[in-house]
Amino acid sequence: MILDEVSQASRKVVGQKQTLRVLKSGEARKVIVAENADEKVKEPVLKECAGRGVRVFTAEDMASLGKACGIKVGASVVAILED
Questions:
Q1: How far apart are CA 78 and CA 41, in angstroms?
Q2: Which domains are seen in the chain, by residue range?
Q3: What does the alpha-carbon distance between residue 73 and residue 43 come to, in Å, rounded to a whole number?
Q4: Rounded Cα distance, 55 and 7, in Å
Q5: Residue 36's CB: how many other CB atoms inside 10 A?
Q6: What per-residue string of b and e applies to 2-33 under the rule 16 or more CB within 10 Å gives b?
Q7: Do the beta carbons of residue 22 and residue 77 sit within 8 Å?
Q8: DSSP-assigned beta bridge partners for residue 58
Q9: Distance CA 41, CA 81 (A)
Q10: What confidence tens digit (pLDDT) does each residue in 50-81 have?
């Protein structure tokens, strides 16, 4: 399950700005997007992933994605980085 991979990843970033930054630098290996995240947050990330051939996975909601990241608030977007 993708949330298990998120929680075990040694290198990850949380949030739209950080995810876009690592996508543009070529460091992102996978991106996880919460289904209930705002479209304004998801759309630029999904476009960047499509343009760079990065696989996108979905999480059920922001709360579970945030919990998998080890934070106490929801997360809309997470990128797992190259090791």
A1: 12
A2: 2-81 (3.30.1330.30)
A3: 21
A4: 18
A5: 14
A6: ebeebeebeebbbbbeebbebbeeeebbbbbb
A7: no
A8: 33
A9: 20
A10: 999 999 999 999 999 999 999 999 999 999 99
Cβ atoms of 12 and 78 closer than 8 Å: yes
Q: Which two tokens stand for residue 78?
A: 């997470």
Angle at 31 between CA 29 and CA 33, to 5 degrees: 175
- pTM comes to 0.94
User: CA 72, CA 68: separation in Å to the nearest integer?
Assistant: 10
Q: Which two tokens stand for residue 50?
A: 């499509």
Give the bridge partners for 34, in sequence order.
59
Largest Cα–Cα distance in the chain? 32
